[in-house]
């Protein structure tokens, strides 16, 4: 018998074969192989149902085995680890917020899995005490000891979980510590590495008009995420959604479930996270997974995520990303997966593959650039959140009280028209007809107002939400950089105390320069995308806004024309 | 020291500088010149605050002199008696309601002085227990003994006040009993009057296309109320506003203070109130009387009131109204005033001057018509109040949260633009300029939204407010009619018990027919005005609404054009 202790409260969604469990409760695992992040368990009252894996801690028998590697498809329990956020169900939030899709991320304090910022909800929205500020570790003028970009250091909330220090050995890692291989390895690993392997995956950095830039391919990779299909396994016990992804290179669709996206995300984060902000996937959600609206929304966001990855010259050109988009068959996929999981050029070692064409940078300049990027990304993070907050409020007003008010105005006009009709006075049908029409017009306006956010605010919010996620990765990326700067600053002292040789000190400065080129290339990539994205989304927004107000004006003009001119 | 005895309990409105006093209490008047129907007084506990003048009786020094007549301009302290509703001050309401002028009447439970409906605030607005329903006395199927149209019968709230039965003798009349000469006289006075005086002021009723109609003059009287000027008396201690009224007949301006309008109103109510709904004057207000905004508003409403009176063929043609509009000099005015105050054809006796050209109506038809008008005016009263309620809410939203939201959207765009400008990345000024412009556009929209209600909702509200006042007079007018119907129904019984002669019974039925013709003529007048007014106000409203939305669309179009097309 496999027993497990429940770590967090979980409330079953009715009709979903789920089991409600309480923190501290002991349950018996009746089927550990459900997949999709679920196990089947039985409680002390004999009730059986599904429970999210990461809400429980296994007590015996399936305790941590020294398994070969995380993500190995051969290991049957890996699907087990889709981390579902232990938060309020999005379906409930949607209901109370006029179908505002942003109520999900606004109300969800644990947000996107790897996104530090997502975990830091707007104070104005929740009124809860602020989460630890991930920017604190990169605050200006007060350099702190770098703790590594992993979650643990940023979410020191007293929850203890196994940390064997070895990336692939802890199966039951908490959702707060999803990247065991990525944490702990500070930039020293790269800065002081004896010998950099000369591999084939070189990442050159060129000097462009705007400064250091990545190598951009001639044709930009792109893909379409479409055609979500429901599949099932375990004799229909659990079902899932499979998406069809078609890259513009092969034009041949491949199928992936959400958990494959998640696998890709973890690979990219492992490999590039120190140099390139890898935005987290759209929120995973425990409930409502087969609700049409939700699937559409998730698909739209997966599309947004894939598009952003495709646009990135380094990410899109990587072997693992290419594998994901264009594997030939199951065998190809499995082989590729295994290879990707064995990739050792991960974490800060990614810098060892970077080759700037320009000469080494002065550490002072490196530090200045770093400070500038830190300030900018923090400021933009604030700006983006402000837009999300006001947009969220606007959404609520446009779908809640405002259309209700227009409806009431419309009804009031129509009611008055009915009263007038009952007057018994002759020849006022022109007035009453016009008054009724005016009333109906305001009811139509109510509808327009309520529908409008989906037409314009939606894209503005989605884009800013994406940027919020992206910007949430910068504290990690910049943190690695800051730690490297601090290490190099210690150079003389380290030499004096014979911790490193004078040659190693020189190497460290050179490698820091490489890191800075990478950071600058990445910032330039970010800026150019940002300009494109915001130009585009603002145009879309204003276009739809113009149409909206013109439509209303036209409707009112028609209503006006029905009254007799005097 | 001026001392006064409190006649009725008065409960201070918090935050209004008012003083709670009890019936029988002696207070010291610390400032008798507050104006607007208030004095400042100190109680025995040393507390100082405002008390309504007509709640107290002065004991010495400024005790009431045996002045010749109410409203006589020679009586220096008559301004003292402007009955201001002892309610919350409008200035405060304005402040908390985004300068919504309707917050005044919506929040003021004692409303317009003679307007029963105005005293019956929307339950939805105040949440207070409902005031006695004046429509109750004209409810269908449950005829009640007619108690007269005066306030007392309708506001039988246990407050006793002096009623000398003589119209002009009680100076300290309560605001609840403003028309002592008008109450008490039921329709019997007319129905059973031995001899109807044959005066010169005959009021013919013709049969028009729509039924009985008043005699309409060829050119309609009209006047302009303008040029409010501040005057003062009592060595500047008391100041007042004088308005210039110019009728289209003489084209010669005359000056009148508000209290003269009030005098006119009372004369018209006395004389025509039983047959013609005389809407009350715009609310008197204690505070802000010299505030520009308030003067403008009052003038606008006095203009509205005068226009409505001018439009009424009976009222506009009356001697007292003509006197008001075109007195030649002070002497002419004083003589005319005295004559008007001595007019004995008041109350129900107005019916004695009405001469229908058509044959007598059947009592059954009379009752049907009466029921129909009662139903209609009640229904319209509901409809008008609904518009006022939603309009009031819309006003608050448009001047409060909505522009704040647009402002915040505008600021958020501009803030993001500032952040972008700080990026250090080259060539994004097109985006940042456009983003700033878009932000400013939303700030402009905020302003447009906040200003819009004054441009369109204002007139819609004013018109409906006027109609609310007008409709509030119908319970009285219809009540007289109902009482007459009931009296005629009693005819046989009265003859059987020798209370009246058979001839008197016939006379009563004939006179009831005359009353019905008057009511029908008045309803037809009301309907034709209503159709005109609502057609006009809806056109104005929709016109301005169209302009509003077009302006916003145009502004957004310009903002949109600043982004680069891609």
TrEMBL record, chains A, B:
Keyword hit for Protein transport: yes
Database matches in SUPFAM superfamilies: PX domain, SH3-domain
Entry keyword annotation includes Nucleus: no
Signal peptide: none
Keyword annotations from UniProtKB, A to Z: Cytoplasmic vesicle, Membrane, Protein transport, SH3 domain, Transport
Chain sites annotated for binding a 1,2-diacyl-sn-glycero-3-phospho-(1D-myo-inositol-4,5-bisphosphate): 257, 259, 298
Pfam families: BAR_3_WASP_bdg, PX, SH3_1
Gene Ontology CC: cytoplasmic vesicle membrane; plasma membrane
PANTHER family named in the record: SORTING NEXIN (PTHR45827), SORTING NEXIN-9 (PTHR45827:SF2)
Family indicated by similarity: Belongs to the sorting nexin family.
Protein's name in the database: Sorting nexin
Organism: Sphaeramia orbicularis
Name of the gene this protein is made from: snx9b
